[in-house]
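Quick log. Single chain, no ligands specified.
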Amino acid sequence: MKVPYPAGQSAGARPHLGRPMRRIEDVALLTGRGQFGDDVGVKPGTLYAAIVRSPHAHAVLKGIDSARALAAPGVRAVLTGADLAAWSKPFVVGVKAQMEMWALAVDKVRYVGEPVAVVVAESRYLAEDAADLLHADYEQLAPVTGINEAILADAPVLHEAVGSNVVSDRSFRYGDPEAAFAAADRTVELTVRYPRNSCTPMECAVVVADWLSEEEGYDVASNFMGPFSLHTVMALALRVPGHKLRHRTFPDSGGSFGVKHAVFQYAVLMCLASRKAGAPVKWTEDRLEHLVGLTSATNRLSTIRAAVRHDGRITALSYDQFDDCGGYLRAPEPATFYRMHGVLTGAYAIPNLAVRNRVVLTNKTPAGLVRGFGGPQVYIALERLVQRIAVELELDPLDVYRRNFIPADAFPYRAAAGALIDSGNYQRALELMHSEGRLAELYAKRDRARAEGRLYGIGFAAIVEPSISNMGYITTVLPKEARAKAGPKNGAIASATVGIDPLGGINVVIASAPAGQGHRTVCSQVVADVFGVEPDQVAVNVEFDTQKDAWSVAAGNYSSRFAAAVAGTVHLAAVKLRDKLAHIAAAQLGADAQDIVFAGGQVYAAGNPGSSLAFLRMAASPHWAPGLLPEGVAPGMRETAFWTAESLQAPDEQDRVNTSAAYGFAFDVCAVEVDRHTGRIAIDRYVTTHDAGKILNPALADGQIRGAFAQGLGAALMEEFRYGEDGSFQSGTFADYLVPTTCEVPEPQIIHMETPSPFTPLGAKGLGEGNNMSTPPCIANAVADALGVKDVTLPLTPSKVMDLIGADEPPPSKPHAAAAVQAASAAAPAKGGKALAARGEVMLGAPPETVFAVLLDPQALAQVIPGCNALEPAGGNRYRADVTVGVGMIKARYQAEVALSELDPPRSLRLAGSGLSAVGSARGSGIVTLEPADGGTLLRYDYAAEVSGKVAAVGSRMLEGAAKIVLNQLFEQLGKTAANRAAGLPTTAAAAPAPRRGLWQRLLALFGVKR
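-> predicted structure:
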């Protein structure tokens, strides 16, 4: 139940809550005084870490040779998997399966980017240089990269002790879905995929860890965002009791959106590195590490069916869902499945539900929390299905919504799977969409556009947004017998402390870990209203310290906890302290405590404002004269409050669970126009209607909505982690992993409605995740409407849209290009890795005979190729090459084998090669042709190749761009060398200026990759 307002009153001309107050945080941030992880000073003697990561998706880790790294300047220690057993153990797993995940790989690697060693040195630069010297010996295994492949009986198994890549398989049944489907007038079915994507916060992970001693344990500072249930996971992994793991957060965090929960693995890793090195260790993640190795949203394959009456009324739903959790089931997964479990019926009154959930492991980065986790995966299926019902039954989509929405008089409403949806009026949202959203205008515009032959569509999405997760929801993954054995888990405790200092200033400490949302601002508004003062009289501390602050396992910044739970608990703590002050003031004013009013910086009895006490003086007095406190009032001006929602109980024996304490609502409409020639999608208008209960600060609320909308738009149109068939990661830069900018994000129209929650202290609900749930299906529905298609797959990139439109690509402009590609492809690997092609032509100032001779001369060729450290003959027209390759931020030394074949002097030859390095492998093949032209040679080249591992992660745009640049440089140098030879000049002079940097990978792995 909602907490009643206790004795004592706060009044004023206008409350601060509900007003769009400017953020307190902005002054420091906008003037460069923010204290992010990399800004905070460290202890003298702190060392710096570089992590060595696997370039392979699936391989046996046969051994690590760290001798050269240890001998490098400034290196103090190297931590490997062999060190871990003495000081740690595997992380706990959320299901009963025999799998182990250590802080470092110990036997196998199971995804590209998995940590295999940590090099600790006196500077970050020295550590990274030394990391390049470490050699890990791998025996590559066949990878499995997709759900469909992973579930096959003969698929490679990631964890042999489990015996299968399906590590959890649970079925649920609520009501009588079988009877509902048997009696249905129609059955509508869709198979939908949700892609892997992430959040890309401005600040990557930062960890500073210090092993103190056996008695004191570890001291860690990081930008971890919680949930602090993972503090227990960290302590268990480090084999220390909880009080010997002190975890602190930094004053500021540059965004999280869920992904910084995954910092917990690296907190443990740096603790172990500190213990090995005997000094504090700092690690700052770079962007490539963040994309390739931290975490991602869980990609899902869903088949969803609805039993439907002729009028569109849904009587039953059936979900068959697979979640791809990557190489390990890392805590808190399978949270993405079960956070939404109680509300799988969404905003609809559907009495019958069948669910099957299978958790699958593949050779990809472990999945985890990404803004709205669980919601985007559910609603892309459910909301696409609702549109298909309208299409197949030839109904107005709004009529389908209206007939299925939970009735406004049914709240609190118990959903089929157990969610207790606290409040709402979804029908009112439809009315607001018509009136304020001007829906009729969009319909008219669509009619005009289609009459003109344009592709214009309108889509809708309705979502229920959960907030304040029940700490027991994750146990739904276990059968009731296993839950009974483990003991019940439930609730969502929030805590806050409010104190008054000896000068009357108010101080607040919250158990959260904000990442830019404006928590200090809202908390100051809450407390100012309670005490009748101005917000600038309130100081809010958001730094978190597990050794000093009041907290619980539910603490943290996730699942939209802040407005409803944290701010509400701040209110409760402030009211407790205000009630204490009311008793003190009542004795001084000769009044009853319940009649004391706090307003305008004054304290007075109701009806007698002329006889008042200044708040600052009155609130400070108990510090200076505790002996004058009234009888029954204890000394001390500090109160801590704890709160949890009574409605959050453990799953029952029928697997029903109220997964969250409060449920907001969003109803969106999107109008798009699709360019039939390019496949580009333009959003014409986007309207989002929100019910988040009591709005605490409208400006911050709108900011959260806009941010979630931008992120949801990215998921709909741009963002996807891509992997090769060999498991190589191919989205390691912002050239290939595209995120929306202000140029791509239109301004959404935001409409607010308020139905306060009866279950939270302030009536507030969360809203920061809603549009990440609603925007992807809303845009998908609009595009499906524009194109008249059934199936759409996110992200809706132009190429995918063109496939849906059905456009044919034109043939190659030059016949010889197609033939060369076919020839190169015949010799290049057929699949796996990052597939690349490099083709072009260049004029050389020497005849073909001379150019051909240079290509066959190993000494001349070594001088031509940038980055070639050595080129030694290894048989007829075969060479061993030692080359340094650099692409973007990545540089490595490759040991390569190169072969020249199909020699047709002086007209053509084939180059084929393969190479291995610490950052992955490369192989490729291509044709070089030479034609006489204008007294010189027209050289044409056409290569097909693959790269894997870290190099592949830089993405096709950077790789192909580098290929063109480097190949041009190569052949220009070849032309100069050949021209010198034809003129009788020394060829070494021409080659001397060439930098000794990497290209032979371009020649052997793509014939064209270099900085």
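The first strand starts at residue 9 and ends at 10.
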